[in-house]
């Protein structure tokens, strides 16, 4: 079979993905003879398209699921999408606007018809894109948070929590999104530093010429002022107690009150109180029984209560109010000011605090088991540093505002009677039956009105690890086979910014309904940033198109490139050169495969000279496998990849293949070839979770295999003991070869010119064990031990003094300079090792093997320094 000179990712990716699907390699069914390993995908918004964060997140999930599958576990990765109430409704409204249709002109049913049409057309795009990445999800299990059965589970949970007294309805100050025209929970508000202005406004005292100057960032809300507040111990304003001031421009009198909340150092020490538009003012208003005047419409424009600038947008009104105050002589000054301003996580609109009738879930008690689960490591966070953030959130949790003023989503199952009373029920018919039990009056269905609001999107996705396996559980209370078998799931891979949004709430739901954690481990990825450290976004234009990257570099190249600098919880400084490095790695693997398959094989021959190389690489492979398994156990996925990368690039390609490569036009012996193919197959197994396409391509080309023996379902390599001694000896030989090659390069000597090597060493066994390898790689005719060598270049390897006679006069001064530089470096290296070993915290806290390795480095450095000093003494 002829092997193409270049690996073609495009043909391989489509071919093997189709093959895996066709042979049901991604599918999972309950099988009690196998250990389950399940992951639920963080459902991307149905509005979404693949971005770099998705790429990183899903690559890691795929690595975990592919490794588990190869370990013989029943791997089940459940995909799906989230209906994303706010984002999807905004998309549909924008689409209708383009068609000249105003949402207000449509009935709820008409709007939802358009929304479902939009979802069917665009909703599956991101899942199709994940297939390009190689995601091995069980696509037959694909779920959508508004599937009928999942919607049913959401309604059942709402009713259950309401009956338990954990859901209530009330007027509270909420975060209002004027663009989305809906309430948001605290977690959906992103605070950003914004450059704004501090306006110093003069309020005249009623019946006096005296004025009070008040600093505010929001002059457009002065018409909603109901008081001016000063600190009770502030002597500057003690004489104002009980007096009134006039609101500028509208001259409405408001009282001057005292409250310890006022910061005497901020601004002028006076605070205007606007309870309808500030949460802290609202609390002061409650304490002092103040009126509440809301001057803003739901879309952020001024209403009739403002009396001036009615209908103007709040930010335009701010500028106009500033001008009007200036004209009226009541604007003392304006200063530049930086403040933290809340923005909607979904629409990026500036949030307005707003008093509103909403539905809430009481969080103080329901969160306790979920807090304990993480603090006690029942649910482990990787990296663990996020435990403190989690604890802080959970210990300071506020009731969750779960209602949203939208049409797209799960409609709240509350039905209102004509007198304003409501009944929470599964359907209007059930609510009617309940209403007619309450008293003498008989109602009809026409008398009932269902709540217009829908539930927060997170109120469905917090049930995700349960509902994707058994949505009917919330109705029956009985677990089906899937839920019994796959729950709790194993690993969750997600972003730190939704640790409370979603992760904490899933843990809460798991303990509330199953008394069990929803997953065992949570791997928190970092944010993908550009080379300048900026978060990637469409607005900055700094985010590459993931599909274009796959097109240019291949999915395997992109997957590995993403992971080359992506330790858990730390941000990923993305550089396209990393993806290029990933593609180069694919080419390196392909070229190694081509080299091996290009050799002619003498089946019945055994080359004893290759035995040392085979024994070394076998030990090196199992040493690397132990490292890789350790990295996986600690969710150091990037470190696992780098260990494989070094094993493949350095140890297999650069050393092993060079060690056993037969001379030109000479066949390789059968035993070495067979063992090399076995090594290559083991390497492909390690690489497969990271680089599924190229590995399956080579695997299938090595020999004809049935689908049940495809690489994707081949057993992961078994850990075996290894010989550290032979690994150390080989490293000694490699360093010797590198030194000789370096001498050739610096002195312009051809690699074809053979040398003799003389070594002064206490242990010639190392050189004798690898004599054939050393002679071959360094092009040596002989190796001698002891004695003196005239006109020789010398170097030191781990304390051994090595000499190469060049047959010409040696520049002693230059040799001395070289040795002095090496001595200086070795002394500096020894100093750094000693510093580490003198650190009691390091010695006490580091694993014993790490400490032992440092001690070995110290011994090697001391031996090398001694040998260098001896060499220098001979030069005089």
Number of domains: 5
The beta-strand count equals: 31
Sum up the overall morphology in one term.
elongated
Runs in which pLDDT lies below 50 for 5 or more consecutive residues are none
The average pLDDT score comes to 91
| Name of the level-1 CATH class of the largest domain | Alpha Beta
* Percent of residues in helices: 40-55%
Q: So how many helices?
A: 29
The gyration radius over C-alpha positions equals 36 Å
**Which second-level CATH architecture of the largest domain applies?**
3-Layer(aba) Sandwich
CATH superfamily of the largest domain: HUPs
Strand content: 15-25%
Q: Which class of secondary structure composition applies to the elements?
A: alpha/beta
CATH topology of the largest domain: Rossmann fold
Plain-language structure description:
This protein is an alpha/beta fold. The protein folds into five domains: 9-156 and 473-529, HUPs (Rossmann fold, 3-Layer(aba) Sandwich); 182-352, Valyl/Leucyl/Isoleucyl-tRNA synthetase, editing domain (Isoleucyl-tRNA Synthetase, domain 2); 414-450, no CATH class; 546-722, Isoleucyl-tRNA Synthetase, Domain 1 (Orthogonal Bundle), CATH 1.10.730; 729-875, no CATH class. It is built from 29 helices and 31 strands. Strand 10 (244-246) and strand 11 (253-258) form a beta hairpin. Helix 3 packs across helix 4. The longest helix has 28 residues, at 848-875.
């Amino acid at each position: 079979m002829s092997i193409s000179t270049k690996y073609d990712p495009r043909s391989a990716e489509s071919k093997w993905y189709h093959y895996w699907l066709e042979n049901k390699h991604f599918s999972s069914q309950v099988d009690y003879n196998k250990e389950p390993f399940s992951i639920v995908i963080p459902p991307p918004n149905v509005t979404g398209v693949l971005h770099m964060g998705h790429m990183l997140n899903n690559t890691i999930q795929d690595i975990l699921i592919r490794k588990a599958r190869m370990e013989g576990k029943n791997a089940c990765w459940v995909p799906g999408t989230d209906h994303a109430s706010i984002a999807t409704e905004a998309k549909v409204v924008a689409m209708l606007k383009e068609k000249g249709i105003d949402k207000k002109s449509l009935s709820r049913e008409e709007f939802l018809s358009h929304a479902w049409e939009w979802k069917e057309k665009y909703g599956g795009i991101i899942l199709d894109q994940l297939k390009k990445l190689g995601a091995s999800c069980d696509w037959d299990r694909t779920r959508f948070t508004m599937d009928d059965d999942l919607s049913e589970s959401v309604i059942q949970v709402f009713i259950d929590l309401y009956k338990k007294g954990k859901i209530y309805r009330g007027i509270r100050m909420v975060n209002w999104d004027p663009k989305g025209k809906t309430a948001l929970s605290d977690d959906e508000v992103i605070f950003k530093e914004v450059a704004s202005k501090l306006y110093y406004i003069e309020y005249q005292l009623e019946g006096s010429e005296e004025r009070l100057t008040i600093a505010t960032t929001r002059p457009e809300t002065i018409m909603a002022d109901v008081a001016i507040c000063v600190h009770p111990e502030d002597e500057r304003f003690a004489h104002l107690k009980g007096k009134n001031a006039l609101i500028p421009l509208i001259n409405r009198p408001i009282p001057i009150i005292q409250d310890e909340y006022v910061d005497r150092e901020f601004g002028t020490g006076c605070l205007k109180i606007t309870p309808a538009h500030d949460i802290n003012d609202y609390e002061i208003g409650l304490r002092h029984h103040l009126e509440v005047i809301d001057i803003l419409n739901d879309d952020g424009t001024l209403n009739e209560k403002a009396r001036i600038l009615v209908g103007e947008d709040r930010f335009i009104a701010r500028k106009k109010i500033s001008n009007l105050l200036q004209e009226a002589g009541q604007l003392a000054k304006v200063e530049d000011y930086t403040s933290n301003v809340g923005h909607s996580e979904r629409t990026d609109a500036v949030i307005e605090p707003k008093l509103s009738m909403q539905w809430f879930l009481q969080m103080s008690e329901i969160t306790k088991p979920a807090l304990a689960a993480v603090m006690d490591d029942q649910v482990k966070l990787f990296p663990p540093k996020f435990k403190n953030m989690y604890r802080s959130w959970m210990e300071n949790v506020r009731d969750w505002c779960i209602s949203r003023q939208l049409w797209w989503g799960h409609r709240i199952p509350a039905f209102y009677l004509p007198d304003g009373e409501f009944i929470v029920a599964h359907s209007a018919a059930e609510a009617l039956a309940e209403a007619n039990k309450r008293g003498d009056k008989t109602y009809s269905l026409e008398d009932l009105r269902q709540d217009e609001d829908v539930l927060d999107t997170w109120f469905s996705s917090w049930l995700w690890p349960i509902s994707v396996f058994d949505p009917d559980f919330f109705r029956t209370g009985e677990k089906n086979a899937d839920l019994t078998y796959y729950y709790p799931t194993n690993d969750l891979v997600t972003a730190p910014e939704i640790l409370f949004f979603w992760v904490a709430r899933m843990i809460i739901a798991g303990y509330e309904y199953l008394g069990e954690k929803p997953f065992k481990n949570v791997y928190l990825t970092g944010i993908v940033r550009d080379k300048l450290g900026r978060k990637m976004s469409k607005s900055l234009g700094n985010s590459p198109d993931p599909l274009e990257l796959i097109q240019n570099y291949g999915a395997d190249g992109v997957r590995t490139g993403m992971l080359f600098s992506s330790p858990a919880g730390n941000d990923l400084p993305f550089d396209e050169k990393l993806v290029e490095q990933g593609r180069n790695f694919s080419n390196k693997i392909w070229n190694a495969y081509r080299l091996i398959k290009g050799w002619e094989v003498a089946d019945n021959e055994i080359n004893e000279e290759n035995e040392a190389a085979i024994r070394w690489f076998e030990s090196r492979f199992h040493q690397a496998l132990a490292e890789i398994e350790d990295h996986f156990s600690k969710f150091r996925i990037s470190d696992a990849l780098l260990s494989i990368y070094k094993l493949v690039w350095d140890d297999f390609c650069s050393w092993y293949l060079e060690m056993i490569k037969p001379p030109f036009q000479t066949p390789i012996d059968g035993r070495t070839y067979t063992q090399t193919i076995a090594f290559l197959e083991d390497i492909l197994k390690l690489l497969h979770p990271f680089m599924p396409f190229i590995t399956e391509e080579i695997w299938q080309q090595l020999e004809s295999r049935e689908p049940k023996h495809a690489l994707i379902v081949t057993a992961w390599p078994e850990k075996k003991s290894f010989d550290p001694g032979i690994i150390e000896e080989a490293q000694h030989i490699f360093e010797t070869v590198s030194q000789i090659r370096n001498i050739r390069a610096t002195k312009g000597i051809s690699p074809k010119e053979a040398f003799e090597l003389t070594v002064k060493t206490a242990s010639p066994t190392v050189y004798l064990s690898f004599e054939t390898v050393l002679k071959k790689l360094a092009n040596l005719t002989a190796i001698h031990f002891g004695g003196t060598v005239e006109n020789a270049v010398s170097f030191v390897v781990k304390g051994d003094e090595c000499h190469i006679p060049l047959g010409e006069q040696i520049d002693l001064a230059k040799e001395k300079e070289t040795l002095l530089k090496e001595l200086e470096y070795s002394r500096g290296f020894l100093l750094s090792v000693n510093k580490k070993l003198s650190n009691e915290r390091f010695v006490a806290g580091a694993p014993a093997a790490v400490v032992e390795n440092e001690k070995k480095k110290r011994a090697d450095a001391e031996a090398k320094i001694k040998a260098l000093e001896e060499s220098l003494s001979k030069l005089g």
